[in-house]
Amino acid sequence: MTEKKSRSRFSLPGIRPYIQGFFLLFFLFIFFRVSYPFHEDFSKNFFFNLDPLIALIMAISGSPVKMTLLISLVAVLTTILFGRVFCGWICPMGTIFDLSAYIFYRNKNENKPFGNGRYKNIKYYLLGILIIGSLMGFTAVMFFDPLVFLFRVLALNVHPYIILAANQVLHLIQPLAMKMGMYKLSMMSLEQPVFRLGAANLFLFAAVIGLIAMERRFWCRNLCPLGAFLSLLSRYSMWGRRVSDVCIKCSKCTQTCPMNAISENYMNTSARECIQCERCAPVCPVDAISFRTGGKNQRFEFNPSRRNIIFSGIGGVLASFAAGTAVTGKTVLDKRLRPPGALIEKDFLDACLRCGECMKVCPTHGLQPAMLQAGFEGMFTPVLTPRVGACEEQCNLCGQICPTGAVRPLPLEEKQYAIIGNAIIDRNRCIAWEQGKICLICDEVCPYDAVEFHMVTDEKGTIQRPFVIEDKCVGCGQCENGCPVNGPAAIFVTPVNEVRKNDGSYITDRVKQLREEHKFDDEKDFYEEENMQDSEIQSGENAPKPWETNTQKEGELPPGFVE
Amino acid sequence: MISRRGFIKTSAAAVMVSGPYFTGKVFAEGNADLGVMTGSDIDATVRAAVAAVGGIGAYVKQGDRVAIKPNLSFASPVKRAATTNPDVLKSVMNLCLEAGAKQVLVVDHPLQDAAIIGEKSPVAEVVKDTKNATMILLSMTENLFKETKIERGTAMKSTGVAKILNEVDVLINLPVAKSHSACVVSLGIKGNLGLVMDRPAYHNSSDFNQSLADLATIIRADLTIVDAVRALSTRGPQGPGKVVELNTIVAGKDPVAVDAYAVTLTPWNNLQAKGRNIQHLIYAAEMGLGELDPTKLTISKKTV
């Protein structure tokens, strides 16, 4: 046995855990890099680009496939030649299962395959539902892609608590840092994200992890749609497990195999199930097992029955009908603000992976996972929730980061013209309208200068009250975020006048003209002095404005001004 | 009768004193209450204005830690004049460091997201390039502020004040001159809001203008320098609005007087005003925080 161990240190199975660890850390590294300020490099969406299932689903659902997704051809080719190397060596989700099994079940023997391997085919049926579903325009099932799933868990469930812990640490060291003169550190505080619907995601993940009690890689064996896709590709891989005649039938290899990929006579291997982890080779007491090309392998496979494949196809059709809006193309209209540059709702739902990258990158954490605002299949898609955080004028990272282009990568200027909704004032709750207070926060924070204050005389007196200029408002929600009333804001954004485009510029002549019309003479003075004639400035001043009825009278003064 | 020798001596002395003056390096220190300087060279203008009110040495001592409170509320371009001009800030930071300050802290609680200000504000670059200067952007987090009672407050009784103020020897308020839709102008007294935690509470208080004066009773800058190089004269506080190039710096010890003078520089929202027209300055003067009528003070007004 001692000889065996020394051999394994330098062999492929010896280095596998380190490679797995490297890719898991790389995944975490990429995850933490997805934050403001973001600087693009090769690592952007590395794993999503490598995931062939994403590219496949994008292609068959009719969404435009981002060129970067073609990187996944590398994974396809590797799998065709060498089998499910991705599952055994790279997939960070698989690594987490291995790690959890190592921690919780180190000293226990591998259990008998759950249900004698009867459930292995579930993953093919899930894949079938997924493919047929996306043909019907229902891609919400991307939800179950392991890379997407893991990123979403990290973004919605892990990250907030890392920030919480970091803030607690910052809080603890504050007095010390003050004393040592490290003022920047002592005054640091990270924006605390909170995500609704996070619990649902966490329960799902906990369940998937919990299943390792039954089988070490329960998910990979029985459920993973990406695993199913790769296993279909690896059917004729040239590389694999070969057993020589010296086999003494001791069954150690089958006890070690995390995938139940070894036949009952220990000689044959399922090329579809084997993840090439090579755990079986070092445990063999007679060195009968090798991983190589050539040699003979009496293949044996668990084949999904034709009937069940047809059933899963029907399942996909039913799923898309159950979701409703995907098939009919009639999307749910509700108060759901999409990130600026989001595709037309139907196409957006097709292309969105629900990976949570945009929610992670959003500096204000205003992008939240949708509950049912966008229908059942819209769950976990991003919606802007201004009361949590508004869309910053100077940021366009949600589009820059999106792996599939569900949110278009708009340049900053384009983004500032992408109208996601308009603000509306609830005069009954507004403390300026109702209580006559000098509150102008909505005007103060509006980066587009779309909130105006004007004197209005009513039964409460002559008080300055806010008005929204719809033509300038893009719906960023800064006003809703800043509104000082408790509970729902007195000024809030709804998707009225929302503009959604799959291509082309948001800066149309009409939008430009509308903004121009509402530019005030003083702005024109400064910015376009050279191009303006005096007469034009005059006409701008004389142009009637919608609020001019019943507003400021001659000689009335703004608040804070004393005659 | 001036002797020849005396004449030569005097002339030489005059050249020695005024030589550096004309090169824009050293300014004769005056002891006016307000320094109002106009000039196209920003650095020289700032230095002249500070020199006129006693020179930086009167405020910053060797080894002091100085907090400068500019207006960094937005990451908007310099030409919009919604935030303090980076060149003005640079001059003030250099002045403090030249006077022997061991550290300059640039502190503000911005309206916009602090991470974005730190990344995109034109001021961030300037602070980064200055040795011994640190930018501290506060966010609405309780442990960065200390709840402080406002004894004389009527509209605001208590507020969270930035803890960092306890660590510094000198506070220099460096607001940009801009119009404001709730209190006509946003200058030094209004700028104090960038040192408290809960800004919306002020707007929600019974009287916004009174609450500003209340706050001024507990936060009093040792020196106020108003950046009126470019003034946002309409559509403040964020604009974009009419930007007037005044090329002026107003400096002084009395926060009310500095504001009251800066008010007169240009019409705000097309209304020409004086200190006695601005409600929050009136309240502040009534509470004895400063002089509302700058004509009662000595003003050193020059073009640099």
Question: Could you give a short description of this structure?
Answer:
Chain A is mostly helical and 563 residues long. Helix content of chain A is 43%, strand content 7%.
Q: What is the H level of CATH, i.e. the homologous superfamily of chain B?
A: LarA, N-terminal domain
Helix content of chain B: 25-40%
| Termini Cα gap of chain A | 98 Å
- Percent in strands of chain B: 15-25%
Number of domains of chain A: 3
**Which residue ranges of chain B are poorly predicted, with pLDDT under 50 across at least 5 consecutive positions?**
19-25
The strands making up the biggest β-sheet of chain A line up spatially as 1-2
Q: Compute the average pLDDT of chain A.
A: 83
Could you describe the largest sheet of chain A, including whether it forms a barrel? Answer: 2 strands, antiparallel
Element order of chain B: H for helix, E for strand: HEHEHEHHEEEEEEHHHEEHHE
Report the β-strand fraction of chain A as a percent range: 5-15%
Q: What ranges of chain A have pLDDT less than 50 throughout 5 or more consecutive residues?
A: 1-8, 522-553
CATH architecture of chain B: 3-Layer(aba) Sandwich
| Number of self-contained structural domains of chain B | 1
Distance between the termini of chain B: 33 Å
Q: Rough shape of chain B?
A: globular
Can you count the beta strands of chain A? 8
Helix proportion of residues of chain A, in percent? Answer: 40-55%
Task: Compute the number of strand runs of chain B.
Answer: 12
Count of alpha/pi helices of chain A: 26
